[in-house]
Amino acid sequence: MQHQRVASVSVRAKPVDSLENMTNAVFLFDPDNDDVPVNSDESSIGWKLTLPAQVRRHAVQSMRLKAGDEFQLTDGRGLRLGVALVDADNGIAEVRDFVREAQPVTRLALVQALAKNGHDEQAIDTATQIGVDTVVPWQADRSIAKWKNGRTDRKWLSTLQAATEQSRRAWVPELEECVSSKQIISMILRANVHGDLVVVLHQDATDTWSSIEEQTEKLADTCLKDGKPRTVYVVVGPEGGISEDEVARFVEAGARSVVLGRNILRASTAGPVALSLLSRSLGRFA
């Protein structure tokens, strides 16, 4: 992405917080390959940018944006640029305002078991729209689908990126490596040390969801007091559910096993429902 300075001004980053701006389309760019001013210590107001080919195709050819139309660019790492298209034919846009958004201090992670028929991808798509911060693929004992490096990871990342644009987010959820049940136990043990919370959704659990919300609120209060980030992990099994052996080992390691209401949810909906409830408890939907 090429750019040229058209004005020499020194101003602070202006938050993009109006309803009008927040409803504008958002497009991701790759800060490692696209030439974009990403240093918020210096003004980017007035810069003219040549849009990357993929953004230009989507914005100009697919959405038919024209000169004067406003939209946003984000690096998926918190930078949000408010821009206006000035030359549709050549894909030139001008930066109007920009902001860097911080990550939440209390973070949400989805540990999603691989599921057949695309239910796992549906889950992480919806979770991204809700606001999940980290996604961890899990090869559960009962997972029929198999993780294939170089193929499945690209599909999941593409899903996260598309959902990020659709939901107008400035952060793409972090996609971690696919883990085994044994590695989840290690994750739970680390969570015990760091003060994180690991919640395992299981239909036969006796703990209720209200107890999880109470613990999450306490965790959030602690984060606000000491400023240290902590994470609430939601572990969701495949279509056949999490095996009794896996649940027992997770709980023994320190996870909380809970039932999410009376109805049995699909692998594609259980995680998003839990994340929605947690987001409400954390005030993200306020």
Automatic annotation (TrEMBL):
Main location: cytoplasm
InterPro entries the UniProt entry points to: Alpha/beta_knot_MTases, PUA-like_sf, RsmE, RsmE_MTase_dom, RsmE_PUA-like, tRNA_m1G_MTases_N
Transmembrane segments: none
Domain of life, per lineage: Bacteria
Every Ribosomal RNA small subunit methyltransferase E methyltransferase domain range: 104-278
Domain (Ribosomal RNA small subunit methyltransferase E PUA-like): residue spans on this chain: 54-79
PANTHER family: 16S RRNA (URACIL(1498)-N(3))-METHYLTRANSFERASE, RIBOSOMAL RNA SMALL SUBUNIT METHYLTRANSFERASE E
Protein's name in the database: Ribosomal RNA small subunit methyltransferase E
Pfam families with a match to the protein in the record: Methyltrans_RNA, PUA_4
Single Gene Ontology MF annotation: rRNA (uridine-N3-)-methyltransferase activity
Function in brief: Specifically methylates the N3 position of the uracil ring of uridine 1498 (m3U1498) in 16S rRNA. Acts on the fully assembled 30S ribosomal subunit.
Top-level EC class: transferase
